Amino acid sequence: MSNSRSSLLPSSPPSTTSSSSAASSDSDESPPSRPSSAADECRHFKNHPRPPPPAEPPSLSSYKCLAVLSGHAGSVSCISLCGEFILSASQGKDITVWQQPDLRPFARFGQGDGSVKAVLTVGNRVFTAHQDSRIRVWKVSSSSSSSPSSESGKEEENAFRLVNSLPTRKDYLGRFLKQSNYVQTRRHHKKLWIEHADSISCLAAHNGFLFSGSWDKTLKVWRVSDLKCLESIMAHDDAINALQVASDGTLYSASADGKIKSWRREGAKHALNGVLEGHKDVSLNAMVVVSGGGFVYGAGSDGYVIGWGQNSHNNSNKKRVVCEVKAHEMSVLSLCVMGGFLCSGSADRSIGIWKVGGDGGLFRVGIIKGHEGGVRCLQASPVCVGGGFMLYSGSLDRTLRVWWVPNYCPSGGFTQKVCVSQSVDSHNPIQKKNYCPWKIFDAVEST
Q1: Number of C-alpha atoms within 13 angstroms, CB side, residue 300?
Q2: DSSP codes joined into one string, 271-309
Q3: What is the largest CA-CA distance in the chain?
Q4: Closest by Cα among 198, 331, 197, 333 to 343
Q5: CA atoms of 148 and 296, how far apart (whole Å)
Q6: Does the first or last residue of the chain, that is N or C, have fewer Cβ atoms within 10 Å of its Cβ?
Q7: Where is this region: Disordered (predicted)?
Q8: Closest to 200 in 3D by CA, of 244, 136, 134, 256
Q9: Average pLDDT, stretch 85-113?
């Protein structure tokens, strides 16, 4: 396992102004309705007709990649922040723990069959979702912040300890004798309704509840305190790829069926609250919620990022399309948001940096290049560093890279805004106005 680092910040950053998957051969078992892995998705996307991307302006300046962390057995599938640690998981079943600020490898853990699809930290517990249809629960040791012993490695081994898996044995034994607790998953196959029948692709948590989404098209709700499954919802017509929870508790699910659905808790159950339609026959691979739920953005396999916001023309809670951006040349695989910035990772191996406007429009302010494979996952750190924030990206090239993104938009030079379709018809031409500067970030790997 190796890692390389350069200086923490760019050598000559511009003055600040005041003012979040080469394609690897790794593959996953997946539903027949879509490609079996992000690499396959890249190849699949070539069959879709697509308009040319916006012309790329000349580079204004270059920033260094702060670190390139390697050692995963497969492509990096998900990233999570856990206190002073960064957790990165891969198609190779392993979860690697990197300790900040020096980004040294601290520990490695993992269990089960198939790749790790999602990692989520809730308090002193880490939840991991797996291709084998199980959720595993790990307890973070209170002594995990101490340096691992080079002699025995006990601190390293016990830092992340497996304590349970979902559904729990208690939950399973309490239900398996009753026939009414079984559901048909496919022909001649039945499972308990508390079990997922396919890969678990995403996790989210809010207010004492854990939510899991799966390729089996269902959304399940778990109580964090006792890990009991409370609900199972047949939420979509195809695989669920992303889950997000707004600050008001509204749950959003994005699917390969091209829809984002919102769910509200009514009494003891969640009920469908609304449906946001993406492009026809286009999978939504990722999603983020901005401004406490005021705006929702979905990432499509056609390279577009579509945003929805509140309809200001009436008092309805229904959202309308507020922006439609041709963000990348190929499928958009990941999204994250930090403050007023949205970051998009693509199968074209680049990361787009976007400023979120007050109306929900997206202003492109930067392009990060350096990965040799599609960018499967993104995670931004809320800690301010040198007038910017840290961005972590995981890729099909099996590396985790660390970037510094300035928290400002420099004035002068070539400017461009790529947005905004003001019509509720998402297929109307994109209007371009109120341009904003670009930057080009190039990875430099230190020796």
Answers
A1: 24
A2: EEEEEEE-STT--EEEEEEEGGGTEEEEEETTSEEEEEE
A3: 70
A4: 333
A5: 41
A6: C
A7: 1-59
A8: 134
A9: 87
Q: Are 410 and 365 in contact, with CB atoms under 8 Å apart?
A: no
Question: DSSP per residue over 140-196, as a string?
Answer: EPTTTTSPPPTTT-HHHHHSEEEEEEES-HHHHHTTTT-GGGEEEEETTEEEETTS-
Token readout for 292 is 């406490």
Residues 319/385, Cβ–Cβ less than 8 Å: no
- 258-290 pLDDT, tens digit per residue, is 999 999 999 999 999 999 999 999 999 999 999
- Cβ atoms < 10 Å from Cβ of 269: 12
Q: Which residue has the tokens 């209007």?
A: 431
Pick from 430, 398, 359: nearest CA to 53: 430
> In this structure, what is the dihedral angle of CA atoms 45, 94, 217, 42, given to the nearest 10 degrees?
0
- Distance (Å, whole) CA 22 – CA 393: 15
The string of pLDDT tens digits covering residues 343-361 is 999 999 999 999 999 999 9
d(CA 82, CA 99): 10
pTM value is: 0.78
> What is the rounded CA–CA span in Å between residue 321 and residue 424?
5
Determine how many CB atoms are found less than 10 A away from the CB of residue 103: 19
What pLDDT, on the 0 to 100 scale, is given for residue 141? 81
Within the chain, how many helices (H) and strands (E) appear?
3, 32
Contact 228, 204 (CB under 8 A): no
SS3 content of the chain, % helix, strand, coil (to 5): 5, 45, 50
Contacts (Cβ under 8 Å, ≥6 apart) of 6 = 64, 65, 66, 67, 444, 445, 446
Alpha-carbon distance 80 to 93, whole Å? 15
Contacts of 360 (CB under 8 A, 6+ apart): 290, 294, 295, 307, 308, 309, 322, 323, 420
Contacts of 291 (CB under 8 A, 6+ apart): 356
Scan for tokens 């017509």, then name that residue. 237
Which CATH homologous superfamily contains domain 3-10+19-442?
YVTN repeat-like/Quinoprotein amine dehydrogenase (2.130.10.10)
- Are the beta carbons of 95 and 119 closer than 8 angstroms? yes
139 Cβ contact list (under 8 Å, min separation 6): 124, 125, 160, 161, 163
Q: How far, in Å, CA of 61 to CA of 174, rounded?
A: 61
Tell me the one-letter amino acid at 206: H
